[in-house]
From TrEMBL:
Its EC number is 1.8.4.11. Residues 147-165 have a biased composition (Basic and acidic residues). HAMAP family: MsrA. Has an important function as a repair enzyme for proteins that have been inactivated by oxidation. Catalyzes the reversible oxidation-reduction of methionine sulfoxide in proteins to methionine. This is Peptide methionine sulfoxide reductase MsrA.
Amino acid sequence: MEKATFAGGCFWCMVQPFDELPGIISVTSGYTGGVVENPIYEQVKTGETGHYEAVQIEYNPKLFSYEKLLSLFWVQIDPTDAGGQFQDRGSQYKAAIFYHTEAQQERAQQSKLDLAESGRFKNPIVTEILPASVFYPAEEEHQDFYKKQKKAYKEDRSKSGRDEFIESNWTLNN
């Protein structure tokens, strides 16, 4: 098993796309990249801890490759937004790929370069590629939020603009 860690704005919206796919063992919402040990949601959402809301994915690379994870990650985000993602603004909601190995770093950098050279976006691709650091699982109420709080999840997601962005920038422009 291997780990992949991605930040793509609100972690509630980053679980479902990866969840329950063949080869995906688990998807955990949490916090990474900050300076506070064992942060809690109320601290992280202030943007003052340095953490990103992120998901950590445990996967079987023989069944689901890191390249497939990267491809799935990119189409969940606006890679040109340096100030957060969609309605969620601030450093805690910025998009990033956190690599666990040198091979992941190389693949992430290549996928970012490929996206930049594709011409899909007029603005630069600003998604960060950073070394993985301590990952703190979020509180239980944030795990599998899309399943546990279906109505709240759908309302938040519909207000975010994420689906409209995905539709107009990823789905329609293949």
